[in-house]
Amino acid sequence: MVSGSLRLGSGPGRGALLAATLASGMAFLDATIVNVALPHLGVSLGASLAGLQWTVNGYMLTLAAFVLLGGSLGDRYGRRRVFVVGVFWFSATSVLCGFALNVEWLIGARVLQGLGAALLVPGSLALIQSSFHPDERGKAIGAWTGLSGVATAAGPFIGGWLIDAISWRAIFFLNVPLALVAVFAAARWVPESRAPRVQRFDVAGALLAATGLAGITYALIQSAGHGLRSLPVALSVAVGVGAAVAFVLLERRRGPAAMLPPSLFASRMFSALNIYTVSIYAALGGLSFFLVVFLQNVAGFSAVGAGASILPTTLLMLAGSSWSGALASRIGPRPQLTVGPLVAAVGLLLLRRIGADANFWTDVLPGTVVFGAGLTLLVAPLTAAVLGAVSDEHSGIASGVNNAAARAGGLLAVAALPLLVGLSGTGYEHPDQLAAGFRGAMAWCAGLLAAGAVLALVLVHPRPGARIAGARAG
Length: 474
Fold this sequence. Notes:
By secondary structure, the chain is an all-alpha fold. The protein contains 16 helices and no strands.
């Protein structure tokens, strides 16, 4: 097989699409299923709220810090090879998660799992881009986006059923058969490819980015129980800020060879859009973390029922992203980047009304539908605006940076929101404390969305007709 020659209607083309979709589906499923499982694994492992936060953030930390490096490794050593390594790594560490005997074990395995995701997430789309004939790439990417969206939508139901019927551990073991099929399909049908020219790896930059995120995240999580003035929190702040400053200085010194080229941020538009992305995805991360825990521990929903609360948002994005992108190409992205967050904020304020006797259809569904409508309005225009803010030669790295910003936003929200609403220890197990914390968190998330709307209104001025890409997956 020759790189760039596959057709979507052929057997090898369908096999390559299967490999990429199954692998990315594992990562996307993980993002939704683990949140649904948090109350169950918390009880099983005797975890505090900080333990639940690290269960989510340990994975997000390494994924956000190393995803750009993972893409570069595929360009240098072979996209199929690095993709397969990432799939094996992800499935092996999923097994470690499933056998966890305590929360510390689980957190460590989740950190390692994030490294595997940093290899396979950029690799799955790179396989399609490099393997399919140029005339077929648009269709292949569209099919990948749609199938990945179906996997994301099905995740809460599959995961919730496994949690209710078997155990939270089953959601991690589910990755093993998916990984085996993905590896077989990649080895059988995906041609190997490499980039003709690859810049030097910025390993030091990736390590500094991870250290900076880890230090700040640790400080935010631990300060809820130990106080802002405690020695461990103060030290972690110093380490996180110091690493972040060192990262900026290193990237400036390396210039074009940097993992995060400073020249990208010469564009005020690009800088503003990434701050916007952090704000919007922080709100999404806060909702995803709090809502499913609240519905199970306060409203008495099953894992399947709590997982279903995420479904309306996913379905609206699947159905409406193409329309939203087409609209932005006619009128420019700023109107939707401004209105979308405000609509989503209304949805979060509606969710604050949920109580212990919540009904899914009358109490939960209206808020999630409105939130999903707002998110649908903004996601495709955001991707288009990010790509339109830089030159074509930097489109790949710009997309990677924006994805990392989205993941960092979710990471920081999960770390900071419990502190801001006064929830710590085993407070998530007590309905009154969790209910108060949930309402406070939704208000903070609505505020983040409103701040994003103001930022878009003031600073986003791209031309109409900017390129429109599909919704960000995962």
